[in-house]
Specification:
Blueprint (H helix, E strand, L loop, with lengths): L1 H6 L8 H26 L11 H11 L8 H21 L3 H18 L6 H11 L2 H6 L5 H21 L31 H11 L7 H19 L5 H4 L7 E2 L4 H11 L3 E5 L5 E6 H7 L8 H9 L24 E2 L8 H6 L4 E5 L5 E6 H19 L1
Parallel strand pairs: 1-2, 4-5
Antiparallel strand pairs: 2-3, 5-6
Length: 388
Amino acid sequence: MSRLNRLLPAPMAVNGIERLRACSGALLGIIITALVSRHMLGAGATLPFLIAPMGASAVLLFALPSSPLAQPWSILGGNVISALVGILCARWIADPTTAASAAIALAIATMILLRCLHPPGGAIALTAVLGGPAVTSAGFGFALIPVGLNSLLLLAVALIFNNATRRPYPHRPAMDHDNKHGTQDALPADRLGFTPEDLDDVLKRYNQVLDVSRDDLESLFLQTEMHAYRRRFGEMTCADIMSHDVVTVEYGTDLEEAWALLRKHNIKALPVLDRARRVIGIITVHDFMKHADLDLHEGFDKKLRQFIRRTPGLYSDKPEAVGQIMTRNVQTICGSSHVVELVPLLSGSGLHHVPVIDSERRLIGIVTQSDLVAALYRGRLDEQRDAA
């Protein structure tokens, strides 16, 4: 029995909801394709209103919607082009066996050349050769009806169904990694672990067609790395490493008071809270410099004093309170989140401080780059001590 189990594939790592989603999509896709095609062909049509390879296309479109083999150009181009190749082979080669073999081989070669590889295309090429008198008499029209019609209808259902069930389709490849950072150095988080170039080199050596896109494969590897870091550093959360005694301000706090707090406590950021202690913004040294139009040359101190000094009277043409210059779109993190989730925030997003919130989005602390470095260093020491 153990030898037999070795021959079986590993269980698919998808839950029951995803399996039901794929089955329901295929059911809906084939029903609609069949009904519409039969209506358009009419009762007296000699050609089949639904061809068998559409079943294989449905498996790809609904069970593997992110596969490179299941994208719109793959199904339309692959199926129609394979049908044309099969029709040509049937006309040019008299022996059915030779024609069928050539049709399969040439269909694969053509689909690879035109970047529309779609496995059901091989079955369609075979159908075009061995489909019988009805297919033969239809000639090149077979590539349009029913092949093109079936493919187009099934694709339309897939576009609606997959997106409605939160499976983005068609799959959008990630931005070209060669131009992601231009000529600049890669972001700090991207310098750790493998690089896109490493993945490209391995794929070239692997030299086989994969049923997963390159960017999906890279994403899976990155998630695997993050999971490994999480396991390596244990259950260390943001709440474990954050600073609890946080200096904060409110929307209406005077700029002069906020600047004094930054100087007094030797910090560079102040979370802005509402009365329920929920984070509504953050004000940093950079915000002061940006709105005061400061530089590091002549008049720096004078400009800063003029900017933060409160204007007497009821009207002012310059900002007077924290809420007028704060950064509103604040990146926060939950206290129960693992420290690994801070790595992309504090290394690749240009952030230096991340407010930490509880389940009710109330401020409970703040994490800085120094806090993260210290935590990772401590985790590394603990790992070495355990190994010893």
